[in-house]
Amino acid sequence: MRKKALIIFTRVPVPGKTKTRLMPYFTPEQCAKLHCCFLKDIAATCKEGQAEADLYVCYSEPADDDGEESFFGRTAGYQGGSGRLGKIFGECAGYFPQEGENLGQRMYRAIEKVLERGYESCLLMGTDVPEVQWGDIRLAYKILERKDVVLSPTADGGYYLVGMKAARKEVFEKQTYGHGSVLYHTVCGLKSKGLSAGLGKERYDIDTREDIESFRDRMRSCKSLQKTETGKYLMRTGKISVIVPVYNEKKTVGRLLEDLEKIKERCEIIFVDGGSTDGTPEEISPDFRLLCSKKGRAAQMNLGAKESSGDILFFLHCDSELPERPLEQIRYVMKDYRVGCFGIAFHSRNFFMYTCRVISNHRIKDRNVVFGDQGIFIDRRLFFEMGMFPELPVMEDYEFSLGLKGRGEKIGIAKKRIYTSDRRFPAGTIPKLKEMWKMNRLRKKYRDGADIKEIARLYKDVR
To answer: Which site in 142, 267, 352, 364 is 20 to 30 Å from 20, CA atoms measured?
Structure first.
């Protein structure tokens, strides 16, 4: 037996009974799967220190009607778990159920039971801190050599780890949990009893949607988090809202509806009509949500964004043709970026349309500027931080892109291409070239501060 012990203190990962503060953002089943990911990440961390401390898993007592035995197996006493919990932590861990009427009593009793086995020090740690490292745990043991109690704080004012050399009821007496001053009150209570307390490494716990959003942000700068079970799961589960502004698109909407039909069960899809007079709304299936707005692509997209619920907003033009697995393409880009797009392509074999494709795609890489027909997708919070699309008659995507560039936001590019209509470009090589030149000059006029109404008049609506 080693001198040190570590208790993993966990709730049963049963849908509807774990991570309930994440509902309804996550379904009960997703909450349970996320908790399982926490357990796997904690188990991987514990394996790094298996030579330094004995491991125990203290779990909430299963209920007969919850189907929990299949997760925990028969884990009474200190025997190895035979269920899925045993597969996660292994046969080297000891397993025993929690005892006590409230959280404080259950934590105290777990530490007391383990210390009774003759250990010199014992740490108890929760499971909703997937970023914890073995170095954090080692630091806590080090602090405990000179302090009566060690507490490792969470960023929200609580603590994820508590340790002691002798079972101290004072740590848990007259304490409530789940608020932002748990750590402060605990430390003050210990000092009033003449006990010394040291603080370990601060980490983030995951209890709310905001916590998940924060974790996803950290994943973009810390690639190692993308390799964790929690990171991989959260990359797969980011909710995408597809927002499609439409106006007199009866001729094109049918093709897009075929593409969206394939993904409708895995994302939120919102059409926003700007007062079509050609019967476009009647073409849109009741399976999709349809909103009505004043005419104007920016106003329509902004309304769709405000009515959406996704973590990622995907603004899609109606004359676009989606590549295979578009949602997976988006999520892959968004693990590293807060904003991204698809490359653009045309079905036309005309040389100048190919030139337009090359120029458009290189514009993203070389100048960090993206246009709406490339399918902009963006982190929800960033979109609203930007103030949404500016409600201009034209150039709303260009102005929005310039704003992103001004903030220093890099634009990620999906591997696959969106095919878009070349209906703006007239037939014939020379007319196409003239149209490309005209669009370039209009953007120059906009940058130079020309009247946006005059630019809109010259731009013309091709529908």
So the answer is: 267
Query: Measured between alpha carbons, how far is 238 from 313 in angstroms, rounded to an integer?
Result: 11
Fill in the amino acid letter for 125: M
d(CA 205, CA 161) in angstroms, rounded, equals 11
Helix (H, G, I), strand (E, B) or coil at 314: strand
Q: How confident is the model at residue 170 (pLDDT cuts 50, 70, 90)?
A: confident
Per-residue pLDDT tens digits for 176-230: 655 668 888 889 888 989 999 999 999 999 999 999 999 999 999 999 999 999 9
Token pair for 233: 């799961």
List the one residue out of 420, 419, 435, 423 whose CA is nearest residue 463: 423
Per the structure block, which two tokens stand in for 223?
């690639």
Beta bridge partners of 320: 420
Instruction: Please state the pTM of the whole predicted model.
Output: 0.85
CB 127 within 8 A of CB 38: yes
Each as own residue / partner, the long-range contacts of residues 89-95 (CB below 8 Å, 24 or more positions apart, any chain) are 89/8, 89/39, 89/43, 89/46, 89/55, 89/57, 90/43, 90/47, 92/50, 92/55, 93/8, 93/46, 93/55, 93/56, 93/57, 94/54, 94/55, 94/56, 94/57, 95/56, 95/57, 95/58, 95/59
For residues 440 and 168, what is the distance between their CA atoms, to the nearest angstrom? 73
Contact of 98 with 106, CB cutoff 8 Å: yes
Give the C-alpha separation, 370 to 401, whole Å: 6
What is the reported pLDDT for 80?
45
Distance of CA 193 to CAs 50, 170, 181, 184, 187, Å? 34, 8, 19, 15, 10
Write out pLDDT tens, residues 351-362: 555 566 666 666
pLDDT tens-digit readout, 121-153: 999 999 999 999 999 999 999 999 999 999 999
Q: Does the structure show a pLDDT above 60 at 78?
A: no
Q: Helical H runs in 150-296? A: 182-192, 209-221, 223-226, 229-237, 253-261, 280-283
Residue 123: is it exposed, middle or buried by C-beta count within 10 angstroms (0-12/13-18/19+)?
Answer: buried
**What does R_g of the chain's alpha carbons equal in angstroms?**
28
Residue 161 tokens, joined:
């780890």
